[in-house]
């Protein structure tokens, strides 16, 4: 599995419009056959920081970065950003999220 975390720092005037800008990209990516998860979060410490957590099958990562919607996203996102996004991208064992071993919640 490819596990990817990307931090995006939006310009203040784009922060509230960010979700509208990324929605088509998010929906298209989630529909890809090799996508396991594609989840956005907003920092609790910095309202202008958005964090994307992605998971792809080993076979799905290559087609994702070559897709039309990815190419469109990397062409349109910079207008809303303060700086180049910061990324961690690693190939790891696993197929997605698993229950946390250090904590258990009774359902």
Automatic annotation (TrEMBL):
Domain ABM: 1-75
A Pfam family of this chain: ABM
Gene3D superfamilies according to UniProt: 3.30.70.100
InterPro entries found in the cross-reference section: ABM_dom, AI-2_Isomerase_LsrG, Dimeric_a/b-barrel
KW Oxidoreductase (keyword) present: yes
UniProt entry keywords in alphabetical sequence: Monooxygenase, Oxidoreductase
GO molecular-function term, one example from the UniProt record: monooxygenase activity
Domain of life: Bacteria
Record protein name field: Antibiotic biosynthesis monooxygenase
């Amino acid at each position: 599995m490819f596990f990817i975390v990307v931090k995006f720092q939006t310009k203040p005037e784009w922060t509230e419009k960010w979700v509208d800008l990324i929605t088509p990209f998010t929906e298209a990516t989630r529909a890809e056959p090799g996508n396991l998860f594609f989840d956005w979060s907003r920092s609790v410490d910095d309202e202008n920081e958005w964090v994307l957590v992605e998971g792809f099958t080993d076979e799905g990562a290559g087609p994702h970065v070559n897709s039309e919607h990815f190419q469109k996203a990397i062409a349109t996102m910079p207008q809303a950003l303060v700086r180049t996004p910061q990324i961690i991208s690693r190939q790891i064992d696993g197929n997605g999220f698993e229950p946390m071993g250090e904590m258990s919640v009774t359902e």
